[in-house]
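Case 352 in the screening queue. Each case pairs one protein sequence with one candidate compound; here the compound is magnesium ion. For every case the pipeline is the same: read the inputs, emit a complex structure as tokens, and attach any notable structural observations.

Predict complex for case 352.
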Amino acid sequence: MSDAEFTIDVYYDDDADRSQIDDKTVAVLGYGSQGHAHAQNLADSGVDVVVGLREDSSSRDAAEADGLRVATPVEAAAQGDIVSVLVPDTVQPSVFEAIRDELEPGNTLQFAHGFNIHYNQIRPREDVNVQMVAPKSPGHLVRRNFENDEGTPGLLAVYQDATGEAKEEALAYAHAIGCTRAGVIETTFREETETDLFGEQAVLCGGITSLVKQGYETLVDAGYSREMAYFECLNELKLIVDLMYEGGLGEMWDSVSDTAEYGGLTRGDAVVDEHARENMEEILEEVQSGEFAQEWITENQANRPKYWQLRAQEENHEIEEVGARLRGLFAWAEEGEEEETDDEDEKITLNE
Ligand code: NAD
Ligand code: MG
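Case 352 output:
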């Protein structure tokens, strides 16, 4: 890792050949976070788009109001040369069963996450392309960046190349939704799926929330105020993460005091120690073996008993109540920020 060699391929606008998509129809199934962004960006790029939604979907009105053609998933898939599967991962297998007969030889199944293909929950025929363009960002940013002539970085992968041009077509799709403006990294369905699951479990969603809760509990149990514990262990995390995001660990260490740097460097590994590392390796093995995927599929089939229980437990953690109260008291509270208004008087009322 010490030599500066990149082990990845990155593609930009100039690498894309838009003739690969310009005369095609893209069926976007789903109009949620990713779906609305892909559909609108594709349409603004001049690509023919049809949005596939159930007859009773509450998103139908939104898609039509955005000027898009709406059909059922089956009708849309029948019209599409490329079928972009942007319904939630847990419903993709059943949606695929409904539309599979609409896929003609040489058509494309396009994904934004590899879970169902990698874990064999969707098994497309060999005569269709299976590819992925996955923006590394929530959909509203994919849309907003596009409108501001900016891009959103993304991942690209080809699982099955029936036409011999799957990668070129995926690059054209990435171009049309604005990803090649920022850069698209080539990966595989396996790598995208396994690193995504590991990252969200061990570090991003799972690891960090446990770290925050344990830090908070340690301070409160030792008699410190709940408010101070909240600020130290949750609120200030954003400042630290922003610095790491901007300039890596180094910028963070440079920006904090020498005392914080020495304390952190000598104590951090004692918190996330070799046991944590062993647990991470176990989590990775469960991702690689498919054990986690099977657990989540079974959980869904049973209507998510464990999911709902853990979710309620998390919502009832004391830190949530303390945080809601504190955020309401201070100026960074969401309501004050999100309500955009030119009226100064109104602004003051909102922040009160
Ligand atoms: P979402 O939950 O925001 O949207 C789902 C959409 O599908 C909604 O419009 C809903 O009405 C529709 N839908 C739900 N059930 C349906 C059904 N049975 N038939 C037809 N339509 C149905 O989903 P999302 O977060 O945009 O995720 C879509 C894909 O994008 C997933 O593969 C996800 O992993 C991937 N992805 C998401 C993000 C993100 O930030 N949200 C980022 C990268 C990749
Ligand atoms: Mg993710």
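Case 352 observations:
- The two ends are 52 Å apart (CA to CA).
- The first strand starts at residue 10 and ends at 11.
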